[in-house]
Amino acid sequence: MIRHVLERAACALGLLLVMACVGGPKVPATALGAVEIADLSSNAGALRSATAGDALHLSVWQPEQPPRAVILALHGFGDYGRSTYDKAATYWAGRGFLTYAYDQRGFGHNDSRGNWPGADQLIADYQSVRDAVGRMHPDLPLFVVGHSMGGGIALAGAADDGLAGLVLAAPAVWGGARLALPYRAAAWGGALFAPDKRWTGQGVVTIQASDNIDVLRALSRDPIYLHNPSSREFMGLIRLMDRAVEMAPRISAPTLMLYGERDEVAPENAVIAAYEAIPGQKRLIMYPDGWHLLFRDLQASIVWRDVAEWMEGELP
């Protein structure tokens, strides 16, 4: 929930003294390398690296018939694969799409939950997983769906990757010149002075992510969901969004952008600017009654259908 995160930081930290990029030395990303999907059952498994011994939790939704295409789905900040995509991927399975959604490093069911891995690592993980899924299904078109932070990661790592299509739902693209200096200053200051402090935002700012109150209540009680972002994560999200904005003009895959006009998390002008920067074949769908959690809002079934129909239109 990108805007929420940054507004918390700006309100809580104010304009601090540091105006340069901080947050410790840059650690090179370690790609998962030759990834294998292991321990695969009907609805779950793990992504394991033979070289690093690393693993990421994986959720799977398989159609009853042989799949017509494959979806790799990326969740947003704090969330995890099954939480974001369970109902959407169940619907897509009914239309013949096989969906993989992994819990990104630092989130979900992974041992690394709560430890921010850095933008470079998240992008490297995505590229390794995408390549592994492509190797498993070499004869099937591959689509990538990214929500919020997951959309930013997919955008940052998607240039010239041979995808059949890229779906970006309320993507994290509030970066580059569109992110004002006060927000950067607040995040930089927090990363310098209190990198591991987690912020609740209570009494500071109120953001509603969806009109589906049952979903919001369930997330508030979910012990797997990562609720309170740290200063280090504020800074990391900014770096990730900067990367996504930078890469948008290099996207070669057909792209579907989704945005809810009632979204209080991802600023509309930033999303539209990223969409306009993407060259080639693209489509934008605006939902007048849509919020940030597009795949879980009260009108989510419309979004699931729109994504399925667009992907069907991109099939050979």
What does this molecule look like?
Mean pLDDT is 80; it is low at 2-31 and 191-195. It is built from 9 helices and 9 strands. The chain has a 9-stranded mixed beta sheet with strand order 1-2-3-5-4-6-7-8-9, with helices on both faces. It has 316 residues and is an alpha/beta fold. The protein has helices spanning 2-13, 81-94, 119-136, 149-156, 181-193, 213-221, 231-247, 268-277, 300-314; strands at residues 35-38, 44-49, 55-61, 69-74, 97-102, 142-147, 165-169, 255-260, 282-287.
Write the layout of secondary structure elements.
Elements: H1 2-13, E1 35-38, E2 44-49, E3 55-61, E4 69-74, H2 81-94, E5 97-102, H3 119-136, E6 142-147, H4 149-156, E7 165-169, H5 181-193, H6 213-221, H7 231-247, E8 255-260, H8 268-277, E9 282-287, H9 300-314
Parallel strand pairs: 4-5, 4-6, 6-7, 7-8, 8-9
Antiparallel strand pairs: 1-2, 2-3, 3-5
Helix pairs in contact: 1-5, 2-9, 4-7, 5-7
What letter string, H or E per element, gives the SSE order?
HEEEEHEHEHEHHHEHEH
Helix/sheet category = alpha/beta
Largest sheet: 9 strands, mixed
Task: Give the number of DSSP strands.
Answer: 9
The number of distinct helices, counting runs of at least 4 residues, comes to 9
Indicate the overall shape.
Answer: globular
Terminal Cα span:
35 Å
User: Going across the major beta sheet, what is the strand order?
Assistant: 1-2-3-5-4-6-7-8-9
Helix content: 25-40%
Average pLDDT figure? 80
Radius of gyration: 18 Å
Which key terms come to mind for this protein?
316 residues, alpha/beta, nine-stranded mixed sheet, 9 helices, 9 strands, 37% helix, globular, disordered N terminus
